[in-house]
Amino acid sequence: MPSPGGARSGGVPRSKKPQATRAVYTISVAAELSGLGVQTLRLYETRGLLAPARTPGGTRRYSGHDLRRLRRISELIEAGVNLAGVREILVLEARNQRLREENARLRALLQGEGSGPG
Fold first, then answer.
1. Total structural domains in the chain?
2. End-to-end distance of the chain based on CA atoms, in angstroms?
3. CATH number for the domain including 86?
4. Range of 37's domain?
């Protein structure tokens, strides 16, 4: 039975769902959720494919964003891409996303200028 305030038996209020960028998962939980081994996650970090947050004590903490990235890495590896190639693809995808966002920002700016008195 939920306790007052909407908390479940684990003591975490339902309204406090982890955000995509909030690093809350330990390496063992992230490994289980991603279907990968703990050593694989450590390898990906060593190879620069993933950079989980660290607690003050040095424990890795993974976010929802990290889990999505792990799924993307797994997709690329299953497609036959090696780790160096995966790293390059991830860099290019991130750059492409930044350029799309900048393009959208500039288009909005231009549309704003075009709608003024003239």
1. 1
2. 64
3. 1.10.1660.10
4. 27-114
